[in-house]
């Protein structure tokens, strides 16, 4: 199943995004609307959806990232670029938090966020050390602090 196949299903109104940010699809077998459950990759923690449809007797399967599918439904078009999370939280798949960008832009943004996380961790560590700093109490402690022996 290609992105074009999914877009056709979206345009026919058979795949929708609910107000609660859930994927709803029409089941011809059960003749009713169903909620598509999101799956989570055990290694990466990323959310995705799996689909299986039959077209002219041929079963087609597709796995697609939750962010990409939600973006496709909301914008009703196919993206050849990366669909990234504006706030950097991969589980926040609200349409207003998703944006289309090049792979290079996404990579640069990810590197910048990683750098910010490292700096924030270092700042928290130095604050912790500063809060727990005390003056040496004995001459042996002073000697150890000054020489390391």
Radius of gyration over alpha carbons? Answer: 25 Å
User: Please, how many helices?
Assistant: 4
CATH topology of the largest domain: Homing Intron 3 (I-Ppo) Encoded Endonuclease, Chain A
The CATH class assignment of the largest domain is Alpha Beta
Structural class: alpha+beta
The run of helices and strands is: HEEEEEEHEEHH
Bin the strand percentage. 25-35%
What's the number of extended β-strand segments?
8
Q: What is the count of distinct domains?
A: 2
Q: How is the main sheet built? A: 3 strands, antiparallel
Overall 3D shape: elongated
Detail the topology: elements first, then pairings.
Elements: H1 3-11, E1 15-17, E2 23-27, E3 32-36, E4 39-40, E5 47-55, E6 58-65, H2 66-75, E7 82-85, E8 98-101, H3 103-131, H4 139-147
Antiparallel strand pairs: 1-2, 2-3, 4-5, 5-6, 7-8
Describe the overall structure.
By secondary structure, this protein is of the alpha+beta class. The chain contains 4 helices and 8 strands; from the N terminus they run αββββββαββαα. It has 2 domains: 3-101, Homing Intron 3 (I-Ppo) Encoded Endonuclease, Chain A, CATH 3.90.75.20; 103-149. The protein has helices spanning 3-11, 66-75, 103-131, 139-147; strands spanning 15-17, 23-27, 32-36, 39-40, 47-55, 58-65, 82-85, 98-101. The strands form 3 sheets. It has a 3-stranded antiparallel β-sheet with strand order 1-2-3. A 3-stranded antiparallel β-sheet has the order 4-5-6. A hairpin with a 6-residue loop joins strand 4 (39-40) and strand 5 (47-55).
